[in-house]
Write a structure and sequence with these properties.
Blueprint: E1 5-7, E2 10-12, H1 15-20, H2 34-44, H3 56-67, H4 84-98, E3 107-110, H5 112-121, E4 132-139, H6 144-151, E5 155-160, H7 171-181, E6 185-193, H8 205-218, E7 221-225, H9 242-249, E8 258-263, E9 277-282, H10 286-297, H11 304-314, H12 324-351, E10 355-356, E11 365-366, E12 369-370, H13 374-382, H14 387-399, E13 404-405, E14 416-421, H15 426-447
Parallel strand pairs: 4-5, 4-6, 6-7, 7-8
Antiparallel strand pairs: 1-2, 3-9, 8-9, 10-12, 11-14, 12-14, 13-14
Helix pairs in contact: 2-3, 2-11, 4-11, 8-9, 12-15, 13-14
């Protein structure tokens, strides 16, 4: 893609903003983390281990990983579940995060969280008494879930997040959704995205406890998508893992089945193309876990480059390490900038006429609501488009700015939204919001 975006024969200068909506940090100007790229260079070309320009800690990390690889080569097949030392490091990361032990043998590495989520969902494929397995999914949702449910011939159970309380999760809404679904499917899984995509909310601890109690009552497997756990910007919000809360609640909840996911595509890295993630499974029936591991072995192994990046994420440097200061500086710069941009987006969209946006508490997205004029809604329907799609297309064609229509994520009937990221660098984001506002005012004037 060139530095200028061509749409319908007209050049549009927002290539980086357009690409931001697929969640690619580096595509919108974010610099890679120096230490991680050094480790990658060393494992890929071990001859560099004798190069004095590489710091000692990067070399030690590379040697640790290479030692675990057959032939000391990152190009060899590792264990089908991932390189053992990296799985052990993931378990240590979870233990340090939650204060509870994590068994490295319950850690599965994968090519991004998406593949790992699909692998776990595949355990539940199959009809019981003529009914499909049902998966409870938050609306708005990350489309991976609905697509996988369709692929596996399962049943989507939609439960709506409450926009009026910053996209919180209502237990009465969960009960409504599951009771209606029991007529046509067997509810088996509840998927929770925390921090949220596309909504950018961070669940409170109380909300997580309520979800766990509900899941226990309904005998649901909890699938916790926690890939944005490092992305919390709101001072009133804090990330709590489902495992930590579940364990602290004690019996009988600490015996519940749970799968949680973490990725190196998010956080402060944004290494989306270097596919790496872990899944921790707890309390799974041993016989089921054995068969699950066998099924994963068919894929031979997750890619070793992504595993290397993941190891750098879950194994922090110590203060005495030579790369510590630079790594912390780079990491904090990125996260502080995300916090600044989250506030910028929230304030900007709330200043637009007929638009409202909840606080971006975490993740990398905002999901504003637009009050579209009746004439715009009529025009969209005449084109057989959802009004949110119509609005997004008009914005794209007139400005080159790309947003994702709310219809792609699900929304309460009669409401219209869009998802945008906070990934463009501050000056680019400020410029984009200025152009967005001018378009929005023109659009409202045209259809009022």
């Amino acid at each position: 893609m060139t530095s200028r975006q061509v749409i319908k024969g007209k050049e549009k200068p927002f290539d980086r903003v357009i690409r931001a909506n697929i969640g690619d940090c580096h595509a919108v100007g974010q610099s890679p983390i120096t230490f991680i790229r050094q480790v990658l260079a060393l494992v890929l070309y071990p001859e560099l281990l004798s190069d004095p320009t590489f710091p000692k800690d990067a070399k030690e990390r590379a040697r640790t990983i290479l030692k675990e690889c057959e032939g000391s080569s990152i190009g060899s097949y590792p264990d089908p579940l991932g390189i053992e030392i990296i799985r052990r490091h993931c378990a240590e990361y979870i233990k340090n995060r939650d204060g509870f032990p994590a068994d490295w043998q319950n850690i599965i590495l994968g090519n991004g969280a998406s593949d790992a989520i699909k692998a776990v969902m595949n355990l539940f494929v199959g009809n019981i008494n003529g009914k499909k397995a049902g998966v409870m999914v938050p609306i708005p949702q990350y489309p991976l879930f609905s697509a996988t449910i369709s692929q596996f011939n399962m049943h989507l159970i939609s439960y709506y997040l409450d926009e009026s309380t910053n996209w919180s999760l209502s237990i009465s809404e969960l009960e409504r959704a599951v009771n209606e679904a029991k007529k046509c499917c067997n509810p088996r899984i509840i998927a929770v995205i925390n921090p949220g995509n596309p909504t950018g909310q961070v669940l409170t601890r109380k909300n997580i406890e309520e979800i766990i109690k509900f899941s226990y009552k309904e005998n649901l497997f909890i699938l916790a998508d926690e890939v944005y756990q490092l992305n919390v910007y709101d001072s009133n919000s804090k990330f709590y893992s489902f495992k930590k809360v579940l364990m602290e609640m004690g019996p009988p909840y600490n015996k519940m089945e749970l799968a949680s996911f973490m990725s190196c595509s998010k956080g402060y890295l944004g290494e989306c193309g270097l596919r790496g993630a872990y899944c921790e499974i707890i309390n799974l029936d041993p016989d089921v876990q054995t068969m699950f591991i066998k099924s994963l072995s068919v894929m031979l192994c997750p890619n070793t480059i992504g595993q290397t990046v993941l190891d750098c994420v879950v194994t922090p440097l110590k203060k005495e390490d030579p790369s510590y200061e630079l790594l912390e500086k780079e990491k904090n710069f990125i996260l502080d900038s995300f916090k600044e941009r989250a506030k910028m987006v929230y304030e900007a969209f709330n200043s637009f006429e007929g638009m409202s946006c909840n606080v971006v508490q975490g993740a990398m997205y905002a999901f504003p609501q637009i009050k579209l004029p009746p004439k715009a809604i009529e025009k969209a329907k005449s084109l057989k488009q959802d009004p949110s799609v119509f609005y997004a297309f008009q914005l794209l064609e007139e400005t080159g700015v790309c947003i994702i229509p709310g219809a792609g994520f699900g929304q309460v009937e009669g409401t219209y939204h869009f998802r945008t990221t906070i990934l463009p660098q501050p000056e680019d984001l400020k410029h984009m919001l200025s152009i967005f506002k001018a378009f929005h005012e023109k659009f409202l004037a045209k259809y009022k």
